[in-house]
Amino acid sequence: xxxxxxxxxxxxxxxxxxxxxxxxxxxxxxxxxxxxxxxxxxxxxxxxxxxxxxxxxxxxxxxxxxxxxxxxxxxxxxxxxxxxxxxxxxxxxxxxxxxxxxxxxxxxxxxxxxxxxxxxxxxxxxxxxxxxxxxxxxxxxxxxxxxxxxxxxxxxxxxxxxxxxxxxxxxxxxxxxxxxxxxxxxxxxxxxxxxxxxxxxxxxxxxxxxxxxxxxxxxxxxxxxxxxxxxxxxxxxxxxxxxxxxxxxxxxxxxxxxxxxxxxxxxxxxxxxxxxxxxxxxxxxxxxxxxxxxxxxxxxxxxxxxxxxxxxxxxxxxxxxxxxxxxxxxxxxxxxxxxxxxxxxxxxxxxxxxxxxxxxxxxxxxxxxxxxxxxxxxxxxxxxxxxxxxxxxxxxxxxxxxxxxxxxxxxxxxxxxxxxxxxxxxxxxxxxxxxxxxxxxxxxxxxxxxxxxxxxxxxxxxxxxxxxxxxxxxxxxxxxxxxxxxxxxxxxxxxxxxxxxxxxxxxxxxxxxxxxxxxxxxxxxxxxxxxxxxxxxxxxxxxxxxxxxxxxxxxxxxxxxxxxxxxxxxxxxxxxxxx
Length: 579
Fold this sequence. Notes:
Elements: H1 10-14, H2 36-47, H3 50-64, H4 68-92, H5 99-106, H6 109-140, H7 145-154, H8 170-183, H9 187-213, H10 236-247, H11 253-259, H12 267-296, H13 307-315, H14 318-352, H15 371-387, H16 390-395, H17 399-416, E1 421-422, E2 431-432, H18 445-449, H19 455-476, H20 483-504, H21 522-536, H22 540-564, H23 566-578
Antiparallel strand pairs: 1-2
């Protein structure tokens, strides 16, 4: 039998979808050994480390001030809305690729690659930021003796204040390598280590919250600053929204949770439960930690690198400072473990599908983990943490994650408005329901009925997202307070309403699932709106980083991935058989 070339065009190749037959979505070379508690604690461990110890001080000092409590509220709501969509997909397709796999099954290969390519970089940046912050907290125990010794011995690497670090953070580099070695020992071992660290971290955080409130001074929240501004909103409400965009990184733990779906014992039940529970615990901790810090001391006196430890130093609470620093070190190691756990699995999913280099999909026969992916990305992470500045790394967070969450929210809408198989009296005949069909009141219904299934819902989502970006840019540029701005807002609102009504005009399919996003399409579409607003309020340099990284990825895809894709090989096999 000889192979014949695939006859499909480029556009069909770019938007071909991954298809699972029967229970093939449960088949995996990875070991299914994780319980609900294991998976939930992976998410909590990933969320209550960097968000508290890396982001809180930086966001309070430079973006939001005391209104960080609202920043956490907004980002928490956005995370919940996206998490509900993740939970549905996690129950549908419990695979290691998470958002990448979800996009592959609903939108197509190109979008899946774009999302899959951004998520690993987000993990690398997050891991690097966590490791550098851990080094900073550890150094405060010794009055920055390690930093001073490194500078005196090796010299300054950079003048500081830019993209590169002032000194080579060798301690953080060693930490990244040691954590990778622990993760490489196996999935269950990683989960047990993570469980111990999470339990200890939560206990210390409870102590910190109670202690911080004993120093509470509500004058830090109410009144005006020396320049006449609000103490609660020292950077304005736009600063609060900007802070929410950055704080969203704190909630990306459920992305790590989703990557564990392929190793969960009962993923259809485990993923939804672990997602909701982990978000509830994390959200409560963030709100209390942000409030207690900003009540403890004025926002402009907060140290952005070691906020809580330095706050205790300023109050003379040395015992509490030591306990807090131990908690920070514990939480950050915990965060680094879960980030290192999730990163190679996100890479493995793409490599296993043939979209990036196949050696990254190789599973170690003893530990049943993607060892090559761990080794390669640990080296890249070690280089990143050695040279790059913490503040610069923090600025780069969230854009890839927000993009992934937006795609997943849109994908839920697409999947639920597609025809689904229904039970038939004839076992040899596959019958489909009316999912995705338009209701009688929708104009031009006959035109859309002649289009391929799903095209109309994709068109509706496209115009809805265009409207969201238009609205977000209008507010970001403060254009809405002008006459042209009012006119722009009017047409923008009309576009959003028409697009949303068009989406509502579709019939939902009747496919039975163990978990579904409630209130479709309201919750996914509202989650999309919040994600778009937070993306627009990120720093421009973050968008530059995204486009540069995507450019590199697309070169790999069009020179390697599009030809080695497993879905492409499946198509060629079908063509060969037909021939």
